[in-house]
Design goal:
The protein is of the alpha/beta class. Helix content is about 45%, strand content about 20%.
Amino acid sequence: MTFSVIIPCFNAASFLDSCLQPFLTASFSEEDFEVILINDGSLDATEEKIKYYAKNYSFVRGYSQDNEGVSVARNVGISKAKGRYLLFLDADDAYLPTVFQELLAHIKDATVEVVEFDYSFLNARTPAMVKDNLIKKNGFVHYIENAQVNSACNKLYKKAFLLEYEISFDDRFAIGEDLFFNIKVFSKAKNVISISEKLLIINRNENSVTRAKILAKEMLVVSDLTAILILAFSKLNSATNGLEKEYYLKHAIKISKTILYSALKMRLLFKSKNAESASFFATISKNKRTSYWFRLINIFRFL
């Protein structure tokens, strides 16, 4: 089997039909790909949807777990996958029906370990993010030379490569799990290419986004990315050559900018002096990672 598509599902009942539709219409042998659906403790009808597709379509396999998060679900998918190459998809997004044909043309060279491809947003103009780079490069060079996207969903990974280097998703992170996964991937990969075809359609699901939800997410961004930043600096300090140092330095700069942006966004949301903001900042002050970035913002007079 060539392809395994791994899809964690949490309260995804309303998205699964559109997510799976391209696979139902794909002009690709059902014996050469599989879709692995992992119900991550959903509270809606996701489990019933998964059972329906697994019963009626031979290429669908369904599994269920307690609500342990996307990283654990993806790792389960990796362990169950029969395909030589892995794709990771979010349940509210979708691939084009031609995704397998497009990618198959670029893995005839069995040494290719990662293929990065472009994406678009649903019902929105999306500038080109990924360019054609068909000459194989190691992961350090690929990342340094390209505006590499952190997502795991716009990449094809050779399963044997992931297993050889024991690369999996780290369940310590609720935000930034894709980033940390790809930091490990590109630090080990020797043969990476990219193609400009937009094969992934991202649905920016922003329904019912309240200020409290934004704050909770941004606080998680600051906390988790700070932990990843510390790990990146550790790798930077132990790097043995200039290329490796440049790789981790670029990551560190990019992560720092994201953290500062999130911290500033939270600060601006709570400029008013009221009980809600007082409670919010009391929570921040107890977290060493988030409090550091807020002190830094004050130093630079961003308020």
